[in-house]
Write a structure and sequence with these properties.
alpha+beta; 7-stranded mixed sheet; 14 strands; 55% helix; disordered N terminus; disordered C terminus
């Protein structure tokens, strides 16, 4: 508020000089300068005029006190407002502020507010002048000093002048008290520790009758509560007083001084409601004291005007944030529902933003306005559409999923391109959560893929494939529907990929033509192969889509009888394809036709039902993905891992795809374990002994030795310890390990015991690795070792193809 008042006076002064003092030659020159600058036809001509005027202004400043300094500074401020440099007028502002004449003080303070800020050293020169003017006998001089301090006062100035401001808060003049209050707000924002200085005075300001002072007091108390939560209990005692002030504003008769569109001082009402929201948050006593008032404001305020809507909106926010009654919350939601019918798009936007925040806590109340919210999807404004979409998706439930999905699918076909991806994702999530049947679920996703297949996320295809595999009774229906969609349009890549997969898996069901759920259509083998060949040859098909189509074609070789030679011909063509992935598939499929034809039927048999939570389906890992160590647990100070360049991490992503000769681990002797009391206890069973913990050395280079030790092993889980030691004369630093495993294996690396390995073998660094192997595949792991030794950085990669046996495996001897 201080800044707004400040610039209002500032611009008022400049136009006052231009329009009021036309009889005086200096002001005529200002008016003439403005006219000439505005009449400039080009930017270059304007710059020339500005340069000449700035030269004249500099000359006037150098002449000293000639009575023209204030007019020259006024012209310079106009030049500054046009965006041209005016820094050479800073010292002139300091001189004019120190002048005893009010006309010069005013333009000096105005210049200080526009040309100076807390980063300028010249701002410190006016501190003493401001302090003197705060004690001036004229309220207008005091006002200038208060406005300037509130606008550009630095932290040092605020500390020096805070006692003066606190003194003015107790002044009898309402005009000064209002400006001092706003200045105190600026001081608290700059120096929060000074808040205690203004707390006693802020409480007494609520008894003022002047609306300007009341407004400043409410702003000051709000700032105190936000900056220092310890003051909340003190100001909660003022809630009844704030309620009375608010009631007076709501029930007061027409007052032309404060009335805005039929609302009595809506600015003060909004500020009071905002303060009540802060005071009533998580406090039952304060909330109970304001419930009746909020109901009165919500009922009696006219929402046909913008001022009334602002008050009602703040009332709704207050009701939702305090511990209000349930009936009052329903009333607040209904007010937001009325806002949705407003012609002003801004009001509709803020209404939906507020409903979005409360839909989880007051879902049933918001559901009553579902029709109005859905209608907002047809709004021309994109931001309103986006908010309506988010709110519509939040309103979907098991009860209304069919009707809401119908509306959302209609919106998907006409929505702007920037909202299509968000709409598709929201429909997918809602369908998965509330689908009444699998057929409805599949139909909904296929409809989305048909309309926006290019805007869906990458995981849509595997998720839909998993859904189709689990709905065994719908395989015939799904393959027929996807085949028709494929023949009709191959532009939507996601849809084409799913269709190719289904045709490859369930092509025999398609060729039978027996489907109860859909009108049967006779499809021949040539028709199916023509469709797949069209996908393979289309310029719209991506490499991934061609891979789906080629695999589907190959799978049909075991599901049809008359066109196997044609399939062999199609596959052989792509054996020399420029795309390496497609070429590799074709070469492997050709090998199935020739060398391994006896295995082709088994290899290409129908895929089993996919479990959505199975490894490789939802974890999103790629082969060779790097697992960073778990740093959630505390570790030694030296254990902080150093980040590596991005290029090195990218290189590691290919750990499992390289062609380097694997490093075969060789067994290494281990030290004899020490006998403990636990071993004695085990001996109670008779002849039960612990074998030594087996370890395998996997890396020996530059004095660094890395060994692997298997601590625990089950059918699906392995716990491994990596132990590093140093035999050189100097410490090895920056020691880090990174690991990569096949896609079907889940890996977790614990935090290492350190990053420094002591010299002469005086210490070790250990790191635990957890492997989860639910598919029981052959375990392989690649490890990247990075370390610094004698100032040189070393980096090596080793591959582990076999692991030692489980540690502490008991062997039972005969009794």
């Amino acid at each position: 508020m201080a800044e707004v008042a400040l610039y209002y006076e500032a611009y008022g002064y400049i136009y006052y000089c231009a329009a009021k003092d036309t009889v005086m030659s200096p002001s005529v020159r200002l008016q003439e300068m403005i006219r000439v600058i505005r009449s400039a036809r080009t930017q270059g001509e304007e710059r020339g005029i500005i340069q000449r005027e700035c030269a004249d202004i500099r000359a006037q400043f150098r002449q000293g006190d000639n009575g023209e300094r204030s007019h020259s500074l006024a012209k310079l401020l106009y030049v500054h407002m046009l965006g041209y440099p005016a820094h050479f007028g800073q010292m002139e502002c300091v001189r004019l502020i120190a002048s005893p004449r009010y006309s010069e003080k005013r333009i000096g303070y105005l210049g200080a507010m526009m040309l100076l800020d807390e980063k300028q050293d010249a701002s410190l020169l006016i501190t003493n002048s401001i302090k003197n003017d705060l004690s001036h006998s004229s309220q207008y001089v005091q006002s200038l000093a208060l406005c300037t301090l509130a606008c550009m006062g630095s932290a040092e100035m605020c500390r020096d002048l805070a006692p003066e401001i606190e003194r003015l808060l107790r002044a009898s003049n309402s005009y000064i008290k209002k400006k001092a209050t706003l200045c105190a707000v600026h001081i608290i924002r700059k120096v929060p520790e000074l808040a205690e200085l203004f707390t006693p005075s802020a409480r007494t300001l609520l008894s003022e009758k002047n609306h300007g002072v009341l407004h400043g007091a409410v702003v000051l108390i709000t700032e105190l509560c936000v900056r220092n939560p310890d003051t909340l209990d003190r100001f909660r005692k003022a809630v009844p007083e704030l309620v009375q002030i608010m009631k007076g504003l709501v029930t007061s008769s027409y007052s032309p001084e404060h009335n805005v569109a039929g609302i009595s001082d809506p600015f003060l009402q909004v500020r009071i409601l905002r303060l009540l929201r802060i005071l009533g948050h998580n406090n039952d006593t304060a909330s109970d004291a304001m419930n009746d008032l909020l109901a009165q404001v919500a009922t009696n305020t006219d929402s046909s005007k913008t001022a009334g809507s602002a008050v009602l909106y703040e009332t709704v926010l207050t009701i939702m944030d305090i511990n209000s009654e349930s009936g009052l919350r329903v009333l607040a939601v209904n007010i937001l529902g009325r806002f949705l019918l407003n012609n002003d798009r801004n009001i509709r936007y803020i209404s939906m933003t507020s409903l979005q925040k409360i839909v989880q806590t007051d879902h049933n109340a918001v559901q009553r306005h579902r029709g109005t919210i859905v209608d907002c999807l047809k709004d021309q404004d994109t931001s309103v559409k986006r908010r309506a979409l988010e709110l519509s998706l939040a309103l979907v439930s098991a009860v209304n999923v069919r009707s809401m999905m119908k509306e959302l699918l209609i919106f998907l076909s006409v929505c702007p391109p920037e909202l299509r991806s968000q709409t598709a994702s929201g429909i997918f999530n809602a369908a998965e959560r509330y689908s009444p049947s699998k057929r409805w679920h599949i139909d909904t996703i296929l409809h989305v893929l048909t309309k926006a297949g290019g805007d869906v996320r990458d995981e849509t295809v595997p998720n839909l494939i998993q859904l189709i595999t689990t709905a065994s009774e719908l395989h015939c229906y799904t393959v027929h529907k996807l085949y028709r969609a494929l023949v009709k349009d191959i532009a939507q890549q996601s849809l084409v990929q799913v269709a190719c997969w289904c045709i490859g898996e369930y092509g025999d069901l398609l060729l039978k033509g027996e489907c109860e759920e859909i009108e049967p259509v006779q499809v021949t083998e040539d028709d199916v192969l023509d469709a797949l060949e069209t996908v393979l040859q289309s310029h719209m098909s991506s490499p991934a889509t061609r891979g789906f189509a080629l695999t589907a074609t190959m799978k049909l070789s075991t599901r049809i009888t008359d066109n196997v030679d044609r399939i062999r011909s199609i596959v052989s063509i792509y054996g020399s394809c420029i795309d390496l992935e497609l070429q590799q598939r074709a070469v492997e499929y050709n090998a199935l036709f020739k060398k391994y034809d006896h295995m082709r039927a088994a290899v290409l048999e129908r895929m089993p039902v996919m479990d959505k939570n199975s490894p490789g389906h939802t974890n999103g890992e790629t082969p060779g993905e790097i697992k960073e160590p778990d740093t959630s647990k505390p570790k030694p100070v030296e254990a902080g891992l150093l980040s590596e360049p991005a290029s090195q991490v990218c290189d590691l992503l290919d750990l499992l795809g390289g062609t380097d000769t694997p490093l075969q681990p060789s067994p290494a002797p281990t030290s004899t374990p020490t006998t403990t009391s636990s071993a004695d206890l085990l001996d109670l069973l008779g002849g039960l002994e612990l074998t030594p913990v087996p370890t395998v050395s996997v890396y020996e280079k530059n004095g660094l030795s890395l060994k692997i030790q298997c601590d625990k092993q089950t059918e699906t889980e392995v716990v491994i310890n990596l132990i590093a030691s140093n035999s050189t004369q100097t410490d090895i630093t920056n020691f880090t390990l990174q690991a990569a495993v096949p896609k079907s294996v889940q890996l977790q690396m614990k935090a290492p015991s350190g990053t420094v390995i002591p010299a002469h073998g005086l210490g070790q660094v250990t790191q635990t690795v957890l492997l989860n192997n639910p598919n029981k595949v052959s375990l392989k792991m690649r490890i990247r070792v990075s370390y610094s030794n004698q100032g040189a950085m070393h980096q090596d990669t080793v591959q582990i193809d076999s692991f030692p046996s489980t540690a502490c495996q008991p062997s039972i001897s005969p009794l």
